[in-house]
Amino acid sequence: MLANPKTTVTKKTKKKGGNAVKNADALLKKKFVEIKIEDQNLKAHLGEPQLGNSHWFIFGDSGEGKTSYTLAVVKELTKNYKVLYNTLEEGDKKSFQNAIRRTGLKGNKNFLYIQANYEQIIEQLLKEKQPKIVVIDSAQYLFRGKQVQHYANLVNKFKNTTFIWISGADGTKPKGKIADDIRYDCDIVIFVKDFKAEIKKNRFEANASYIVWEEGYKQTLLK
């Protein structure tokens, strides 16, 4: 009679890291770094967003106040952080110069800008001591000839960075499939129209609108 073969029992080890099963208390004990916003109007608008592994999406048509809004937010952020603005659409054009001057960024050492394509921005961010807040203007320009997987690769490579994505609009929707996929992934979504920035989604429990340009906004109400 044949003897029963010995059964080998493999001892399971607990996995560590993101795939480990955790309880609610573990999450509640976790500390997140929050982006400090001092301006009370912007704080009511944006809340206390997470710094790193969390992204924003700003979209709207040309001439609606999108760039002015973005630079106003950037100016507030530079009170406490370095911000890198990737100006693919405008670059060193006079229009961008005017926007910088109008926002009052002259002499601001925490505001940095670059004109870089997809490969170049990765190369830049791989350098030491790069800003942890990066504005991409625009998603359409950065991902020309690319797929949504390129977006996923970028944000996964730089998990400690908050990306602020700027996008054109097709009516009340982002322009293009990749931009819409990015919108879905972001924690804060802002639609800018008639010099008014409206929150479409905010996972940080703030939803107040923000007037970009008071006079311009009032003029649109008279139309």
From TrEMBL:
SMART domains: AAA (SM00382). This is AAA family ATPase. Residues 52-194 form the AAA+ ATPase domain. InterPro entries: AAA+_ATPase (IPR003593), AAA_22 (IPR049945), P-loop_NTPase (IPR027417). Pfam families: AAA_22. It comes from the Bacteria. It comes from Flavobacterium davisii. Signal peptide: none annotated.
